[in-house]
Automatic annotation (TrEMBL):
Protein name stated in the entry: Phosphoglucomutase
Lineage: Bacteria, Pseudomonadati, Pseudomonadota, Alphaproteobacteria, Hyphomicrobiales
Transmembrane parts of this sequence: none
Tagged with keyword Cell membrane: no
Keyword tags: Isomerase, Magnesium, Metal-binding, Phosphoprotein
């Protein structure tokens, strides 16, 4: 039997080459992330593959699975180790090669595979690896499945089965892009678009798709380089957004689009170089799509702007907004449960249901939606559409370091602190607390509409802090100072990756 994984092993030892290493904290709420090889080695990845196969059979799902890998120096070798484990557990593997996560999700439909295991660290820094998994298209695993997978792998209770097989699917990149082209409407407006890929996987995809739609493309960092020399491919990172903004102004582009490391997210910069946070892009798209689909429901994550509830244009179209847990698996599942037209996350994960998409997150499909919105508004620029929104002042997503072993306990204490403050009638940032949303961390709102969120990151040893005010920039800063002060009453809180 394959050995039971160890939680810690020292590299450059015989034990490291003879035994599987799988750090238990790598099993997150809805996918898996590890530092390679510090927290998982190749034998550990084999154990993960055995665990996935064991879980698929335990769930009674047909054992056909799509796999692919993102563009990092080690992703291909990790995928091959994963495949070895999945085959040993009786899974019939279809390998689509170098891929975006949405290309693997598309493979579940196009190749008739109920299951997916995409090797990617998404937007995480180099050194990270991971797997996005699912066994019920278009959904990916949530906490229940991830908890059971952790039990199987860490307990070494995986099971060998006959019937495993391997097939490489040649030319699937073109099949995926052709499907996206078939979903796009003809573009009549002449548009120039900056396509930024951070030297990551999307460079092999985004420029080809946009050019096929008749768009004039200004490529930015599309040449593959897995050292990510300029910035991490993360369209929520201000460094990437600033680079896009510079290119938009330099080339006189109509819009700038930035894609993350595995292509399931899209960031947007308008024609004046203004970096638009993804939750505001969601409001703009909801305005546009609700004219075609009045009364539509949109699922949004708790990090997102309050405009989904208060925007007069959305109210006019009888739009229903459902605030839900942050995380691609949570929003995907909620969109499916409610039959929502779309789901939007502040991180840039957008989920379009039929008739637009198949319910999973795809940065390239989001790019098409933005371009079609511009095409349906030929007399307006991206900046015009942005200015038409009610003004709010919002922070980027800010993440102070907090160890995986501590972060959930910290959020629990912060939540209890705000609950006691509300009960006692205390103020936060100088304003009375009117509402607490605790579906995912704690989102505290005050009487003037200003709010702040604290939650645990689901994929890194960090907390997540977001602030928004419809009143003023000064209120934004007051709320941030108050929320950060309460957060730092706890030990183990490190520096922010970015702040206001």
């Amino acid at each position: 039997m394959f050995p039971k994984p160890h939680a810690a092993l020292t590299p450059n030892t015989f034990e490291f080459e003879q035994l599987p290493l799988v750090k238990p904290t790598g099993f997150r709420e809805y996918d898996a992330r590890w530092l390679f090889p510090k927290e998982i080695n190749l034998m550990g990845v084999q154990a993960l593959g055995l665990g996935i196969g064991t879980l698929v059979h335990e769930m009674g799902v047909r054992p056909d699975i799509v796999t692919g890998h993102d563009f990092r120096s080690y992703s291909s070798s990790i995928k091959l180790a994963l495949i070895a484990g999945m085959q040993a557990a009786g899974l019939r593997v279809k390998d689509v090669g170098l891929a975006l996560s949405p290309m693997a999700y598309f493979g579940q439909f196009a190749l008739d595979c109920p299951c997916v295991a995409m090797v990617t660290a998404s937007h995480n820094d180099n050194g990270w690896t991971g797997v996005k998994m699912g066994a019920n298209r278009p959904m990916t695993f949530g906490p229940d499945e991830m908890g059971r997978l952790k039990e199987i792998v860490c307990g070494g209770t995986y099971q060998y089965r006959d019937g495993g097989s391997y097939e490489f699917v040649e030319g699937f990149l073109e099949t995926y892009l052709n499907d996206l082209k078939s979903r796009a409407k003809p573009i009549s407006r002449k548009l120039k678009v900056v396509a930024a890929c951070g030297n990551g996987t999307a460079g092999a995809f985004a420029p080809k798709l946009l050019e096929a739609l008749g768009i004039e493309v200004v490529p930015l960092d599309v040449t593959p380089d897995y050292t990510f020399p300029r910035y991490n491919p993360n369209p929520e990172d201000m460094e990437m957004l600033h680079a896009i903004a510079h290119a938009v102004k330099e080339h006189g582009a109509d819009v700038g689009l930035g894609f993350d490391g595995d292509g399931d997210r899209c960031g947007v910069v308008d024609n004046e170089g203004e970096e638009i946070f993804a939750d505001k892009i969601g409001v703009m798209l909801a305005r546009d799509l609700s004219k075609l689909h009045p009364g539509a429901t949109f699922v949004v994550d708790v990090k997102s702007t309050g405009l989904y509830n208060t925007d007069p244009e959305l109210q006019k179209q009888a739009v229903k907004a459902d605030y839900w847990k942050t995380g691609h698996s949570y929003i995907k599942r909620r969109v499916n449960e409610l039959g929502a037209l779309a789901g939007f996350e502040k991180s840039g994960h957008f989920f379009f249901n039929e008739p637009i998409g198949r319910g999973y997150d795809d940065g390239l499909l989001t790019a098409i939606a933005v371009i079609e919105m511009l095409d349906r508004n030929p007399d307006k620029s991206m900046a015009d559409l942005y200015r038409a929104l009610p003004k709010t002042w919002g922070s980027p997503t800010m993440s102070p370091h907090c160890d995986d072993e501590l972060k959930y306990g910290v959020v629990e204490k912060v939540t209890e602190r705000f609950q006691k403050m509300k009960e006692a009638g205390e103020t936060v940032g100088g304003a009375k607390i009117t509402d607490l949303v605790t579906v995912n961390g704690v989102r505290v709102s005050t009487e003037d509409g200003t709010w702040g969120l604290v939650r645990a990151s689901s994929n890194k040893p960090e907390l997540v802090v977001v602030i928004e005010s419809p009143v003023s920039e000064a209120r934004l800063h007051e709320m941030f100072k108050a929320v950060d002060g309460i957060l730092r009453e706890n030990e183990g809180i490190g520096a922010y990756n970015q702040t206001i």
